[in-house]
Amino acid sequence: MTAPRYIPGMPGAILLICDHASNAVPPDIDLGIAPDMFGKHIAIDLGSAALTEALAEALDAPAILASASRLVIDLNRPVDSPGLIPLVSDGHPIPGNVDADRADRIARLYVPYHEAIASAIAVQRPVLLAAIHSFTPQLESVGGPLRPWEIGILSNNDRRAAEIALSLLTAQGLVTGDNEPYSGRLLNATLDRHGEANGIASLSIEIRNDLIADAGDVARWAMILAPILAEIRNRLASNGGLAT
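Above: the chain sequence. Below: its structure as tokens.
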């Protein structure tokens, strides 16, 4: 339960990461929420694990997938972030987190996940880190506007991979957000730590979760994204890490 899931693949090219792949909760933790909450986007990035698996197969790329729900601990947050162990998510209170043993959850779940990524990078030195996420079409708590994007590309200061991806996706006529539906300048902790800090090009791919709701949808997006990720890898490798 504490160890992330690792999918082996060809080293030295692309490393896939899925921070919110699981809605599992350790048996000794009670979040105090209704069972149906675990099928919502607050507990898991719906469809992200299946898409990561499909891309790993298509690209023969290694992948690291989280083993616990983001409601237990959000692995895509800095360790000192107030949102690391959420008390409320999209308007839903998480009462079991009020008195959570923060140090225990960090040691059991956060540290093994990030150590696994760091170890894979040290051994493989990938050209590209690609984090796979999904987003809900509309937030529940604010009854906000529908999110029109089919896919969003998130990045922080390192825009090398993002610029290539945005060009290739928009060329296919896809409704593509640049740091939408939220900004990678604010929510990019995993890639900031393992990508930018190591000088490795990276991007976060956000798919609207109603578009990867079944196996056919996942297969379609894998067919779209695998060649794009391969092209990004090839351009970065042939230009010494510089986007063209």
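The domain at 5-238 is CATH 3.40.630.40 (Aminopeptidase).
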